[in-house]
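HUMAN: Mind making up another protein with tokenized structure?

ASSISTANT:
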Amino acid sequence: MQEIFLGTMLVNLMHISVCRYDGAGAQCQCFGESAGSKILSEAETSFLKNIFELKQRKYPGIYALEPDILAGEIRDPAQEDSWILFGPILLAPANAARFQHAGRKFGKLEDIGLHLQICELNTLVAGMILYYGYLTGKELSLAEFLEYNKEEFPSVQKIHERLGRDLFAHQEQAGIHNPYEQERREQDAIRHGDVAALNRSISETYEGKIGQLAKDPLRHHKNVAIGNITLASRTAVEAGVSVEKSFTMADSMIQQIEEIDNVTEVEAFKRMAQRMYADVVAEELQANEGGYKNPLIAAVKDYIFQHFHDSIQITDIAKYLKVNPDYLSHLFKEQEHITIKRYILQEKIRRSRNLLQYSDYSIQEISFYLGFSSQSHFCKVFQEITGETPGHYKRQFANRKKWKIQ
């Protein structure tokens, strides 16, 4: 009963198939909504073994049926030749077309109780580690899980060999990389919100060149851009920008990089992204004039960023941070020279201006999206802060190309 309960909870939490098969594969016990036992036919048993190639190993195993389709297995140490199978899963994120195509290819798995679902890799691994702990009473860390599975990943096994070969080849060719100091100057410019210094650093000439990050030129430039944006996002956090804001910016920029189809545009986009980070840091530094900031201030801003669509209450923030609401309000006002409530309104209006410029949401939709009690309240606050009505502001950008989340 305990195992059935655990299996059912995992299915409900992970939204993937979890089934137990006996040694010969003849008996199947599925958990979750499709809970129940069945005897597999000889053909189904053979199919199961051909697909999963079950192995006699001591630790949970994970392997790829296709590059983006994974399955997991745990051998029950208490019952010889008995396995618990997880998945198969299509790695998230995945689009509908890919899911439908994979579903047709692996549809026959449904006959043995397994249903293809979209799932994140970390979710699959966490569920397997939990189940393994139940079966064995042993704790298994993520690092140990990956170490035990390295035999399934040829590139992991060959990392030392390939690295040694590439280091030797680079030394033989007497090539040099772009100077580290130049990269540091770029990051320092972002750290200080200095766009002019960033532009000077970008324009520097130097010996050496950026290492080859892919054989395809476009992929190489995209990889370099992703690295630059990632570094800029971390530098911005070090300079005081909200972690959530900085990381979300990076997520968006990297996804946009992936959609570009030519090298020149990738390079221009990369530099614009760095400048945007410098601008964001400059805004943060200007707001934080006065020296040391209590770490709670950054935590408050992160909370606000994460709950932008809600009606945010100071008591909720204080409860989340486990501090007294009055103390939090006083601290924020003392260090930011603005109340938390006013900061929330200013940030929401800042976001609304972006939506009014670039989206085709109506004013009513935007007011609802940002958690205002009514459209009239949103309009009143918008005019108070910006000096104009949302309608007048929106009309200035009427001819701009718009987007809308589906």
Notes: The chain is about 60% helix and 10% strand.
